[in-house]
Amino acid sequence: MPDARPYRAEDPGQPPSLFPPYRSTALRSPRQPLVRVPQTLTEITGPAGTWEALMGPALADLTCHARGLGEAIGQRIIVSGRVLDEDARPVPDTVVEIWQANAAGRYIHRNDQWNAPLDPNFTGTGRVVTDAQGRYRFTTIRPGAYPWGNHRNAWRPAHIHLSLLGPAFATRLVTQLYFPDDPLIEIDPIANAVPLPYRNRLVARFDIDTTEPNHALGYVFDIVLRGRDATPWEP
Amino acid sequence: MTDDPIGLPHNPDPRPDNQDPALFGQTPWQTVGPFFHYGLPWKGGADLVGGSDIGARTDLFPEEHDVLHLAPPRGPVRGETIALVGTVRDGEGRPVPDAMIEIWGANAAGRYHGAADDRADVALDPGFIGFGRAAVSAEGTFRFLTVKPGPVPIQVGGNRWQAPHLAVGVFGRGLLKRLVTRVYFADADANDEDPILALVPEARRQTLVAPRVSEDPPTYRFDIVLSGDGETVFFDL
Ligand SMILES: [Fe+3]
């Protein structure tokens, strides 16, 4: 019989749904308490191992995948790490999807009205599947910071958006990676929704061993998904 | 850190960061923000039976930057094809134009794709995975095509059953983390015995039960209210 144990609850590092400094949460977060429910077969299953059929082939190098155009402009970086569970066991064969702004801080998205330049050679999206050791690796461009309308003179720290499903519906995670020594992290409402010290889990580490000589700076970022809890639930 | 020949540390001293062993634990959630459309939803992501490209919003980015995948056609899918439609609204009743919905469901026989459901007596459907993703329209609407799921047990090997349902995740700008809910079908008989619905205060249960609003294909309406009057029931898993 397969492992029927549920996945662990949120740990104290998870942000609340309502965080008033991030103004858009005011009308978009529940007012009623969440209803605590056990994890059934529905929540402990998930579409693992189906990524190619669903989302298509991997795109691991964002610097040159815009339809065979030229090389993207900006600081070339490698972002690499492992996807683990809370017991530090690797999570293999799970998809990691990323999207980000270009080196100037501009998204190709039509609703991004900032007047920083677009890079015709940079789309800013990628997806890879973790290997047997849970490892993933992207080559991309270091994104720029960008302004947003949350409050006067609000700027998002440079970040890469990441999306993971993990092995089950219950392990879904969407997060953002920040860069070390970015002064904007500590004044960003979205990053600040995560209390310290947990916020620092979102800060990648520069790593000279991931850095490739004469090619790209390397950053390490491990992603930890919810681990298994003690016993299955059966009423 | 080992020193290199020029006498400097190999790596700089770390600040507290992702690699700090003292901080090891769940990676915190962050919002998808408003600009996920060119990366997350794929063409056909909202069509779980295959054959159409619904789910993506290719109007929101330039065609020359389109690297979204088009889901390959699936084999024939067993069971009754249904549509799930709805609108996402905020605490003032306004449509939310930048949300994303994911669904996860069993096949028509009640079997989940994936290793955690290994019941040999309930058949997998090779044409059906059961996972879908849709960006909502500028009017906050979504439309999935899928099969009506069969009843599923609470656990493999258990003998108590859940009414047919789909697990639903809601993402968007202003949502720091996913909101999790479920959709049940108003014309199913087993809803009254469902062990999860039974945990929901009775006055709010109808927010999870989708009425059948039209035919060809049978179409169920599941509106999602993120906050305030008529707020959808969301779960803490
Ligand atoms: Fe962003």
Automatic annotation (TrEMBL), chain A:
Domain Intradiol ring-cleavage dioxygenases: 61-227
Region described as Disordered: spans on this chain: 1-25
GO molecular function, one term: ferric iron binding
Gene Ontology biological-process entries: 3,4-dihydroxybenzoate catabolic process
Signal peptide: none
The keyword Oxidoreductase is annotated on this UniProt entry: yes
The Protocatechuate 3,4-dioxygenase beta subunit N-terminal domain, residue ranges: 8-40
InterPro entries for the chain: Intradiol_dOase_C, Intradiol_dOase_core, Intradiol_RC_Dioxygenase, PCDO_beta_N, Protocat_dOase_b
Biased composition (Basic and acidic residues): 1-11
Keyword match Oxidoreductase: yes
Origin: domain of life: Bacteria
Stored Pfam families: Dioxygenase_C, PCDO_beta_N
Keywords for the protein's UniProt record, in alphabetical order: Dioxygenase, Oxidoreductase
Family: Belongs to the intradiol ring-cleavage dioxygenase family.
PANTHER family noted in UniProt: DIOXYGENASE, PUTATIVE (AFU_ORTHOLOGUE AFUA_2G02910)-RELATED (PTHR33711), INTRADIOL RING-CLEAVAGE DIOXYGENASES DOMAIN-CONTAINING PROTEIN (PTHR33711:SF10)
Stated name of the protein: Protocatechuate 3,4-dioxygenase, beta subunit
Species for this entry: Methylobacterium pseudosasicola
Source species taxonomy: Bacteria, Pseudomonadati, Pseudomonadota, Alphaproteobacteria, Hyphomicrobiales
UniProtKB/TrEMBL annotation, chain B:
InterPro entries recorded: Intradiol_dOase_C (IPR000627), Intradiol_dOase_core (IPR015889), Intradiol_RC_Dioxygenase (IPR050770), Protocat_dOase_a (IPR012786)
Classification via Pfam families: Dioxygenase_C
Key words of the record: Dioxygenase, Oxidoreductase
Annotated segments matching region Disordered: 1-21
PROSITE patterns tied to this protein: INTRADIOL_DIOXYGENAS (PS00083)
Domain Intradiol ring-cleavage dioxygenases as annotated: residue spans: 84-112
MF term (GO), any: protocatechuate 3,4-dioxygenase activity
Keyword GTP-binding listed: no
Similarity remark: Belongs to the intradiol ring-cleavage dioxygenase family.
NCBIfam families: protocat_alph
Name of the protein in question: Protocatechuate 3,4-dioxygenase, alpha subunit
Species whose genome carries this gene: Methylobacterium pseudosasicola
